[in-house]
Specification:
This protein has 2 domains: 2-35 and 76-107 and 245-313, FAD/NAD(P)-binding domain (3-Layer(bba) Sandwich), CATH 3.50.50.60; 110-242, FAD/NAD(P)-binding domain (3-Layer(bba) Sandwich). By secondary structure, it is α/β, with parallel strands linked by helices. It is globular. Helix 1 packs parallel to helix 3 and helix 1 (11-23) packs parallel to helix 7 (294-313). A hairpin with a 5-residue loop joins strand 22 and strand 23. The strands form 8 sheets. The protein has a 5-stranded parallel sheet, with helices on one face. A 5-stranded parallel sheet has the order 11-17-12-13-14. A 3-stranded antiparallel sheet has the order 6-7-8, with no helix packed on it. The protein has helices at residues 11-23, 45-49, 62-69, 127-143, 156-171, 193-206, 294-313, 349-365; strands at residues 2-7, 28-34, 38-40, 59-61, 72-75, 78-82, 87-90, 95-97, 100-103, 108-109, 121-123, 148-152, 177-181, 208-211, 223-225, 231-233, 236-239, 243-244, 262-264, 276-278, 283-285, 328-331, 337-341, 344-348. Helix content is 30%, strand content 25%.
Length: 368
């Protein structure tokens, strides 16, 4: 009996569970180790903040999936991996052996430079913690009108969260100032100038104040100090400051890139350990440029699923070739969104409904 261990219930791992349910391999004992029986979908987080979705609509119940796949579900966190002994250690001290391992644990928010903010700091990841904390922020605002919210992050996540928060406050008729700190590189680096202009105008229209300066590493008790010398007073700071790899990966013996992510080949197989696979924000590739986006985790999922089963059965592996121009649909608070695809862009309510259709279709694929 070969042992397949799935660590993390991320977007790619959902496809693995579906494939196991279909394949029904008799000679494989599969285990899923993940902290929660639910997987929150990051693509619908801004819509949930804005009040367009309930939390139930934004999360996938893993229990029906593991039952259908005949997979053992272990609700715990992995704290270390021994690639020589081929086992992972859990937070409760239990050790789980594997023959083939799949890592899809996502990433953490790179917010260490803002740690001095203490309780004012709210990282966007892990998602479970953010989903739990946002209603508390809303309750605080209702109790203390005039609070100031700052979002730090120039990418899509920072933009969507800032605009979603602004809309949520407006919808509830709450007086809250919202600012977005985007850094000296400006808003949405890597996107076309037309997309940046569209989002900048929408931020101005909806009342989000942009600051094109870095938030200094030394945060003040009153808020943030910006690189232009300005002090930005804040009662709550949401960090959407990019991703960082899980620290425990550093002690695994796996070959990592300079940022600590598992280096994988086109099959999403570890460069150093062919019985270890990784997908989503857990990994990095050297052969192609691949931005950190949930888009890639979703599309790499079927490839990961095939390759895990192929490795167990001695079959040829498939490769994942990311699209050179991924499509981004940026939610802007109300039922309104901006589309970004290379040099092409568009905006409107119809873009939001397009995004809504894609997100709901993804959720239906993995719902009982």
């Amino acid at each position: 009996m070969k042992k397949l261990v799935l660590v993390g219930g991320g977007h790619a791992q959902l496809s693995v569970l579906r494939s196991l349910a279909t394949a029904r391999l008799q000679s494989v004992e599969a285990t899923l180790i993940t902290p929660s029986e639910h997987q929150n979908y990051s693509g619908m987080l801004p819509g949930w903040m804005a009040g367009h979705y309930t939390q139930e609509q934004c999360r996938i119940d893993l229990r029906p999936l593991v039952r259908a796949a005949k997979v053992k579900l272990v609700l715990d966190r992995v704290t270390s991996l021994d690639t020589h002994q081929r086992c992972v250690t859990l937070a409760d001290g239990q050790r789980v052996n594997y023959d083939v391992l799949s890592l899809d644990i996502g990433s953490e928010t790179a917010s260490l430079s803002l740690a001095a903010l203490g309780e004012k700091l709210l990282p966007i990841k892990p998602l479970d913690a953010f989903f739990a904390a946002w209603p508390t922020v809303l309750a605080r605002v209702r109790a203390q009108p005039g609070l100031r919210l700052v979002v730090v992050g120039a990418g899509a996540a920072g933009v969507e969260v800032a605009l979603a928060a602004r809309f949520a406050f407006s919808r509830a008729k709450l007086n809250v100032k919202v600012a977005l700190v985007v850094g000296s590189a400006g808003l949405l680096p890597g996107h076309a100038a037309a997309v940046q202009q569209r989002v900048r105008r929408l931020a101005e229209r909806f009342g989000v104040v942009l600051h094109q300066a870095h938030a200094q590493a030394l945060a003040t008790p009153r808020g943030l100090t910006l690189s232009d010398g300005q002090e930005l007073v804040a009662d709550c700071v949401i960090a959407a400051t990019g991703a960082r790899a899980a620290p425990w990966l550093a002690g695994t013996g796996l070959t990592l890139d300079d940022a600590g992510y598992v280096l994988v080949d086109a099959h999403h197989r570890s460069l150093s350990h062919p019985n270890v696979f990784a997908a989503g924000d857990t990994c990095a590739r050297q052969d192609v440029a691949m931005a950190r986006s949930g888009v890639h985790a979703v599309f790499a999922g079927p490839v990961l699923a095939h390759n895990l089963l192929a490795t167990l059965s001695g079959q040829p592996l498939h490769t994942y070739q990311p699209k050179p121009r991924p499509l981004y649909l940026l939610a802007c608070g109300p039922r309104y969104a901006v589309a970004s695809w290379g040099d092409w862009s568009a905006q409107g309510a119809w873009v939001w409904y397009w995004k809504n259709w894609i997100d709901r279709r993804f959720m239906r694929r993995f719902s009982a």
